């Protein structure tokens, strides 16, 4: 029996290996029209990505060598078609092809089948039901909540302003955006105000769980052995991940249950809004499709958890690199500060109406997003052949849009209306584009404007030339050694 068992195992292994080899040959044949950098027969291009801060430089170099698109291999059997020409981007993003599960699958145990990863009719339905949650009437009161969170963070920066020592931005900004989204999604104040600390002393369990989940998802994405479910499950990080998921789900379910009880007597959104400002959870709980069917508790939890992930980690990356860019470009920083000072007219806060009064600051924000896109790659799964403008056709498989490719000098004037109109709109896609574009991009842009305006009004940002960021690709753009700046108080505050 033992001999027969070994023979069966060997037979299954040979069959599986044969299938993989056949698949590899088919993939190579399908990608003949899209040459790429030489790949190792076993490791592919994995050895090129050493997590030393030079990975994206290599991608930029490859983009210059191979116009429009090129292939990258992860091991001997998994390949991605990396596209970087605006017309190629337009072709892909004009479709409703689903998100690729190569990286996104690591998030699913937390966020479930939410808007980020769902596809087909479920995605269409939920996208339609969630859209009212990002109407300007809903977003307008959020500006004050964002402002309050930003001011709390800036108060804590006073000690850095007095010493002129450099400090790491991302942790501070990440906690601030998490605090902000807790208020906007749940109408809850987090305990982030108690203490900014990597150990989270004094903060509540949910805040710690969400922060841990963001860290662990990014860690798993970077550590290749952790891509295997069994290895990750058995690791200490896997145990920590499952524990954090349990805490996050329990918290979200409790908040949903309590809010349902509050809303039993008030089912109309306008009647609820007459009593208080609506939050994201209200919209989800009151949403009805054309058949008057509401979202299930599981769907609501998935969408809230998706909003928590997408709305704090990506925005934190964006804000951190914007502040860094302004520190490195003091002349543009001062022009933004002058504009902000004039727009706020002596106020120490920013209102909804002020967001449209800072066009140069907005251009600087967009230029930073171009140089340091919070999501450096947009992954799609091509389910059927896709033909591009030059006649080349990509077969079904993995595809990625390289958002991080065009690296030039910092020049906000690229985003003057006359300059924007003269180039393809798909040359700048930090929030994706097409039918699956980021539903929360206005929310994110508003928060970036609020934080940048309040920061520049209060502090002068100074580059630390000895601590330049080593940028690494992950689920969001990060720096291997953190993002450091120095600050000092603005001399003449209004």
Layout of strands and helices, then pairs:
Elements: H1 2-30, H2 55-65, E1 69-74, E2 78-83, H3 86-93, H4 101-104, H5 108-111, H6 120-130, H7 136-139, H8 142-156, H9 158-163, E3 167-168, H10 169-186, H11 205-222, H12 229-234, H13 236-263, H14 269-275, H15 280-286, H16 297-328, H17 330-344, H18 359-371, E4 377-382, E5 386-387, E6 393-394, E7 397-402, H19 417-420, H20 441-458, E8 459-463, E9 471-472, E10 478-479, E11 484-489
Parallel strand pairs: 2-7
Antiparallel strand pairs: 1-2, 3-11, 4-7, 5-6, 8-11, 9-10
Helix pairs in contact: 8-10, 8-20, 10-16, 11-13, 13-16, 16-18, 16-20, 17-18
Brief account:
With 494 residues, the protein is an alpha+beta fold. It has helices at residues 2-30, 55-65, 86-93, 101-104, 108-111, 120-130, 136-139, 142-156, 158-163, 169-186, 205-222, 229-234, 236-263, 269-275, 280-286, 297-328, 330-344, 359-371, 417-420, 441-458, and strands spanning 69-74, 78-83, 167-168, 377-382, 386-387, 393-394, 397-402, 459-463, 471-472, 478-479, 484-489.
If you had to describe this structure to a student in words, what would you say it looks like?
The chain has 494 residues and is of the alpha+beta class. It has helices at 2-30, 55-65, 86-93, 101-104, 108-111, 120-130, 136-139, 142-156, 158-163, 169-186, 205-222, 229-234, 236-263, 269-275, 280-286, 297-328, 330-344, 359-371, 417-420, 441-458, and strands at residues 69-74, 78-83, 167-168, 377-382, 386-387, 393-394, 397-402, 459-463, 471-472, 478-479, 484-489. Strands 1-2-7-4 form a 4-stranded mixed beta sheet. The protein has a 3-stranded antiparallel beta sheet with strand order 3-11-8. The chain has a two-stranded antiparallel ribbon with strand order 5-6. A hairpin with a 3-residue loop joins strand 1 (69-74) and strand 2. Residues 193-203 have low confidence and may be disordered.
